[in-house]
């Protein structure tokens, strides 16, 4: 299972980014292989409109199964993610990536 975390830095120790489409980076953790990769989202962060759907498309291209973020995606991005059957968890905006992963494992994040 591939889990995507919206982050402020490309690091497991990074703080989470509460905003889905405006996250500068996405850390992708493959639970099966233990591999960590990063998606650089800085190109679309400053776009006036459409950042969320573009981020959702990127998550589809990366075959992400779960997204952990702060506030969750907007309506348009959520529609794209729903088509992919991606599970979204929110409430991790004030956590580090490591803390967010523990919260996910402990079922303390809210399903969006």
Describe the overall structure.
The chain has 112 residues and is α/β, with parallel strands linked by helices. The chain has a single domain (2-111), classed as 2-Layer Sandwich (Nucleotidyltransferase, domain 5). Helices cover 30% and strands 23% of the residues. The protein is built from 4 helices and 6 strands, in the order βββααβαβαβ. It has helices spanning 42-45, 51-61, 75-84, 97-105, and strands at residues 2-7, 25-30, 36-40, 66-68, 87-90, 110-111. A 6-stranded mixed beta sheet has the order 3-2-1-4-5-6, covered by helices on one side. Helix 2 packs parallel to helix 3 (75-84). The longest helix has 11 residues, at 51-61.
CATH topology: Nucleotidyltransferase, domain 5
Biggest sheet strand line-up? 3-2-1-4-5-6
The Cα radius of gyration reads 12 Å
Average the pLDDT over all residues and give the rounded result: 90
Q: State the end-to-end distance.
A: 18 Å
SSE class: alpha/beta
Structurally, the number of domains stands at 1
Secondary structure: number of strands: 6
How many helices? The count is: 4
Helix content: 25-40%
Topology:
Elements lengths: L1 E6 L17 E6 L5 E5 L1 H4 L5 H11 L4 E3 L6 H10 L2 E4 L6 H9 L4 E2 L1
Parallel strand pairs: 1-4, 4-5
Antiparallel strand pairs: 1-2, 2-3, 5-6
Task: List its salient traits.
112 residues, alpha/beta, Nucleotidyltransferase, domain 5, 6-stranded mixed β-sheet, 4 helices, 6 strands
Short description:
The protein is of the alpha/beta class and 112 residues long. It contains 4 helices and 6 strands.
